[in-house]
Amino acid sequence: MKKRKAMLCFGLVLTMMGSILGGCGTSSSSIDTSNADQSSSQSSEETGELDTFEEVELVMYVIGDRPAGQDAVDENFNQLIKEKLNCTLKLNWIPWSDYANKYPLLFSSGEEFDMAYTSGWLNFASLARKGAFMSLDELWATYAPKNFSKQSVAALQEATIDGHYYCIPTMLSTYNAYGPIYRTDIMEGSEWDGKMETFEDVETYCDIVKETKPEMEPLDIYSAGSEWDDTWMWSLGYSSSKGSSNDFLFFDSSQENPQLFTYYESDQTNEFLEMMARWNEKGFFSKSALSDTDSTKTQNGKAAVRTHNVDNYASYSTIHPEWSYSYSNLVKSIAHLPYTQDAMVISNTSKNPERALALWDLITNDQEVFDAFYYGILDKTYTLDDSGDYAITDADNYAVSTMWAARTTEFNRNIVGTPADYNTMKEGFETSIVAGEGTEKYSAFTIDTSSIETEYAACQSAHQQYWWPLELGYTDAATGLAEYQEKMEAAGIEKVRTEIQKQLDAYIANLK
């Protein structure tokens, strides 16, 4: 299995955000790092070793609903790190219901804290440019040396904004594989051939479900969109400009200088729309799917198949072990997802960045510390089976951490009941990836919409309003596609395309 080697000496690298020359927000060169300078007195100037003589309390923010029994987990973890680093950790939880409002306020309120979870979906790059996070250029390799030495070249690129490190990415490899998660137990007694390798196979499977299981919806589609359109484009080898689903700009990653295009410019779109209209006519999904808010239909038995990632396949299988699920990847060009999808940042208000980084180094390099932080207390909050897979003992009181950035390929555990082929699939994905080729070449690319915020938001709105019903066959394919083009052009897609193309070109130029 090919492993991307870590580099201790990595010069000036461009990040997936840093290479985006959007020229907006506060330049990283203007970020106030006075807190880091003040706190550096804790360490020896001569040896660079951490001074742990004074006990400190570190403060970390994560997103998620705090488990009822978290106090016991925190107490156990703090006893452990008090012995090892003479510090304790106060863990603050931002509830899912409030994160959209409260998370940005963390970095504008002036509150003093040390560490926080971040991700692209939390506007990591934008916040970094506004000075929310402390630069790690002089800190990361010194106070979290083991973590730094294990980071891949791609991860280091992705952690860099305008030439400076601003986050510590996860060391758990994840993949862009996408495709049907489907029930196989409900096929028993049918004439299904067991194949699920193409969209034709998906249709055959759904035909059988419609005939033999009329109480089920063959396809799991709800108000967040179908994602079959994304799966279709990825199956053709195209990459999304934003690197995730529900996009409207794509490019061919196999080309030397790829150009962005949208749905109404693709020769394959009519074929896709014809297929989806046929699926609609066959009743594979509800006529009111876009108003259905139930996002759990596949795992609760209401629907037979959903297109999603391999991790959801593993999750569904553990929820209902009495059912049988299987998974097929339809993505043509397999690549790693950005490592900054789960990352840890040091707040620019931190008084103890050195100790915070030392703690992070410990969490990500010591199995005992990681388990205590991420899973809790063995045989009280979680148990392990003979394979090292975990199970939460009481889901009403305990849960794994939502600081997903702490996970590493070495220490992360599967939940009890994970399908036997889950790890095999991931190993296959890893083996198929070739550095610098296909979608993997663009794994560090991310778009910066700060200079086109109004137009980009308008395009997203038009895409949802006109493409979503079109792709489900609710509107006529020919007239609907023409209307979609008209609305996207009115929303400003050409300005959006021009700006993102400029960023993509700059990214490619900096790879040479």
Question: How does this structure look, described?
Answer:
The chain has 512 residues and is of the alpha+beta class. The protein folds into 2 domains: 46-172 and 340-407, 3-Layer(aba) Sandwich (D-Maltodextrin-Binding Protein, domain 2); 179-336 and 444-511, D-Maltodextrin-Binding Protein, domain 2 (3-Layer(aba) Sandwich), CATH 3.40.190.10. Helix content is 35%, strand content 12%. It contains 17 helices and 15 strands. It has helices at residues 34-39, 70-85, 99-106, 124-129, 140-143, 145-150, 153-158, 199-212, 228-235, 269-281, 310-319, 353-363, 367-374, 421-432, 453-471, 477-491, 493-511, and strands at 56-63, 87-94, 115-118, 160-161, 164-165, 168-169, 179-183, 217-219, 238-240, 250-252, 303-308, 325-327, 343-346, 382-384, 390-392. The strands form 5 sheets. It has a 5-stranded mixed sheet. Strands 8-11-7-12 form a 4-stranded mixed sheet, with helices on both faces. A two-stranded antiparallel ribbon has the order 4-5. The longest helix has 19 residues, at 453-471. It is globular. The model is unreliable at 1-47 (pLDDT under 50).
Please give a handful of descriptors for the protein shown.
single chain, 512 residues, D-Maltodextrin-Binding Protein, domain 2, five-stranded mixed beta sheet, four-stranded mixed beta sheet, 17 helices, 35% helix, globular, disordered N terminus, SBP, Bact_solute-bd_prot1, DUF3502, ABC-type glycerol-3-phosphate transport system substrate-binding protein, signal
